[in-house]
Specification:
Helix content: 10-25%
Shape: globular
Number of helices: 5
Structural class: alpha+beta
Length: 275
């Protein structure tokens, strides 16, 4: 947008000369969002609670250095599952991650004690809510305005609530239940959908999977930004090769698909494909 490629009306607002009027630039922002069930555990020897200090840190470093094993070999969220919702589509609507630590917070509505525990983080796989990325000003040093517009579609909220209930059922089942002493968030006092909805609205956060703001499509679609060859419409010699070209977000993590886009983009460049 700062270089003059984007929605003409938005660019003129900041006195940016319009080189190419592409209304789709910055639109169609999609992201996976979610929130956790936070559980206190009864076995401090598991997980990552206070493992980054004192003798525990020293042992973790030694164990990894000498034997190539231990906590430092983990990415911190290796256990995950996909779950089909109740909308009748037969598609997995949520993903539940098991994260073997909790984030201590001393104040606020979501304050929790500094204890050993874990999170079952519920992620929305197929969000319907769509956001935007727009300019704050014409100054390149100013951060853009990013509006993910989470939970704008009521179905998104409903599916996350279903996911929280699924996560609770996992926590209550053996063998995990043997390592859990209590639910810290949202807490056993919140059982109805209204209470869970309020909790979701308060705690929903990004899963760092933003896509779609330079979506791929046909030149006849004014909201498309790049062609199937990843070339920006109306511009010579410019391609976009990243997750922003995805017309719709994938129903899983975006890392591998983004690598696939990069591989395809490189093949197009080497092959000199300009269509």
């Amino acid at each position: 947008m700062l270089s003059g490629i984007g929605p003409a009306e938005h660019l003129r607002k900041f006195n940016i000369p319009v080189l190419v009027d592409l209304p789709g630039v910055g639109q169609n922002l999609q992201d996976h969002c979610g929130c956790p069930i936070v559980l206190q555990g009864n076995t401090p020897s598991y997980g990552y609670f206070r493992q980054n200090r004192g003798w525990r840190l020293a042992w973790n470093l030694l164990e990894y250095g000498l034997f190539g094993r231990g906590r430092l070999t983990s990415v911190g969220g290796e256990a995950t599952s996909f779950h089909v919702g109740e909308d009748g589509s037969g598609e997995a609507t949520v993903q539940v991650w098991c994260v073997p630590t909790i984030e201590y917070a001393s104040t606020g509505a979501d304050a929790i004690p500094a204890v050993s525990g874990l999170k079952l983080h519920v992620t929305l796989n197929r969000p319907r809510s769509v956001g935007t990325v727009t300019l704050r000003s014409s100054d390149p040093a100013d951060r853009p305005l990013v509006d993910p517009n989470y939970l704008a579609d009521p179905l998104d909220l409903s599916q996350i609530i279903q996911g929280l209930k699924i996560a609770r059922s996992i926590a209550h089942a053996a063998p995990l239940s043997r390592f859990v002493t209590q639910e810290l968030l949202p807490g056993p006092g919140i059982q109805d959908d209204a209470g869970l909805a309020a909790y979701v609205r308060r705690t929903a956060r990004t899963d760092w999977h933003p896509v779609g703001t330079c979506r791929m499509g046909r030149s006849s679609d004014r909201m498309s930004v790049v062609s199937a060859a990843l070339k920006v419409f109306g511009v010579e010699g410019v391609r976009v090769i990243d997750a922003s070209v995805m017309p719709n977000i994938v129903s899983a993590n975006t890392n591998a698909p983004t690598m696939a886009i990069a591989d395809r983009g490189l093949s197009l460049l080497i092959g000199g494909i300009e269509a």
